Amino acid sequence: MPASVYLDSCLAYKAETIAESLRRGLSALNLEDSVRSGDRVLLKPNLIMAKAPELATTTHPEVVRAVAMVLKDCGARLFLGDSPGFGSLDRCLEKSGLQSVMKKMDIAKVYFTEETTVMDNNNLIAKKLTLATAAFAYDKIINLPKLKTHSMMGSTLAVKNLFGFIPGLMKIKWHLRAGHNRQLFARIMLDIYRQVTPVWNFIDGIVAMEGEGPTGGQPRHCGLLALAAEAPLLDCLVEKWSGLSAMTPISQEAQKLGWLPAERLVAAGPAAASPLSPALKPAQGATRATFPGQRLWRRLLVLKPQITRSRCQLCRVCVQHCPAQAMQLLNNKIVIDYKRCIRCYCCQELCPYGAVRVGYGLVFW
Ligand code: SF4
Ligand code: SF4
What we know:
alpha/beta, Rossmann fold, Alpha-Beta Plaits, 2 domains, ten-stranded mixed β-sheet, two-stranded antiparallel sheet, binds iron/sulfur cluster
């Protein structure tokens, strides 16, 4: 069975060595022609916040330099962008060491400020999804995540790295909507992946973060570089390689969708047969709220759907499409169970009579 993931050993951050590893991986996975001369290619590193490279919070500048070297050889024109979780893009680029690499390698900076909204009824949760326009404005996207544990989602790898395409503070809104529901948040991540679909994903795991990731953990030398065209397959095999004891919510949901068929979960490369030992130390807070007071903020800030009875025609479109089965027709009116409601607002988007409005309201759930 041909491999879909390439796992390589790489001991140090030296761009020339990393570039060689990347070339081997592209060849092993038949991805050499995935970028062509003249392609406008957007690089999406992990730039969650302004931290120095040795803290293992962001994608290392030597990895970005190596990728740029390989892509320049292909004749690609390079761009790099992100919407950091904390702080400005300029500050993150400067502190992470990426700014000087971009200058040396002639990589243009892209701010994820312009927004594009897509409607997709095939999405699991986010039928209406607003992303940075950059997600659609380039010929190819190359995803450059960092191997890290994550206090809410178990790990943050290729699929999770695409959350950076959600512009600015809108990220908080999605966190609030999902609350403690890791499965729901995983589905939202997979919805984003369906829209963005990088041409390939290259994980920087030379020095990973373990413990209280994605920003408060400890650097751990793992010596891994991992490549694949399909992010869910890559994430699943890197989680296994890292020794995480259970499948993370993103991989669980990807498996439910049939995106992880056993015959495609095949890794090649020198590191494939030598998983990390001891395993990456997981975050202790995987089931805790993602920030203090989240429950209260969620109650106060998240808009809740409400039915305008004078407009409602009792057509039951909302009931049939509510992904949380939180709506029912009861005593000749539509009733919403706010304990079940996941604030996806599908009901508002799909109601043919404009009978669902969303508004603020203190709701206990
Ligand atoms: S879709 Fe709109 S009109 Fe139809 S039942 Fe739901 S709220 Fe009422
Ligand atoms: S009631 Fe509306 S907002 Fe709540 S889960 Fe159902 S469709 Fe989504």
